Amino acid sequence: MTDAENTGFSADWLRQREPFDLAARSPSLTLGFRDALRPPAPAALRIIDLASGSGANFRALAPLLENDQEWRLVDHDPLLLAAQRSEITRWASGRGWHCHDHEGGLAIHAGPARWLVRGQQLDLARDLEDIDLASCDGLVTTAFLDLVSAVWLDRLSALLARTPRPLLASLTVDGRRAWFPARPADQLIADAFLSHQGSDKGFGPSLGARATPYLAAKLAVAGYQVSTQASDWHIGQKHSDMLLKMAQEAAAVAAETDPSCKPAVSSWLADRSTDIHRGLLSLDIGHLDLLAVPHFHVFR
Questions:
Q1: Which residues lie closer than 8 Å to 236 by C-beta, 6 or more apart?
Q2: Domain count, the chain
Q3: By residue range, what is the domain housing residue 223?
Q4: Is the pTM of the predicted complex or chain greater than 0.90?
Q5: Is 164 within a domain?
Q6: Residue 179 host element (H or E)
Q7: How crowded is residue 77: how many other Cβ atoms within 10 Å of its Cβ?
């Protein structure tokens, strides 16, 4: 998900957002990624997940990829790496699948399929080039690329140019955010949020909403066929806890970005809290999924 040391994201927050991510993902790009991965039978698919957080990307994709699979979940935060095992075990057990320790990882027996998941602690800001793409069939990441800089995406593109592999980058914010019903201060809040997205999250000045088109252009030049598709969050009126968290976060960011706006921000948050209490508020947050497949790739 994210490099939590740099972003401050917690396992609780990742758990809260997971159902919204799951509902928003592009099914067609996920299937395109699956089709680009096909290994020689009976070999297991090998996937690397960058900034894996508590393992939500694995939980979303593994059932759709169908084959036996080996996942390497890469993150910098030891707390999130520790949370992966408990989160994945709870998820798998809820589906009636057996889990056990195996070869330094967690093995899941999901019907006829066997999945092996291992965590890897790595500082992606400093040590991205330590990722061995030759050891995998595909690369994934989610809710991460808007946190990194153009320089970091240049490094990722160079890595993928040297060792071509399909990439599925899901749920990168694209700058769209719409509150319903609208209020006059929405634009002030939105502008502050966009400004904050450009701050340094530990990877250099963040590209924020520009990350997906920037990476798409770089990978197209590197010989990839690139597709993007909207993967928007839709937070409905019944999701009051999530709406309140989003409103509070937006208000805090706006007040931090421009302290002179604090009175207007406080008034906006009070109005939004009232909207939530009355069951009136909903929110759409724009995201983009990206699938990049090398035109010519030979695996293994």
A1: 282
A2: 1
A3: 4-175+204-236+288-294
A4: yes
A5: yes
A6: strand 167-180
A7: 24
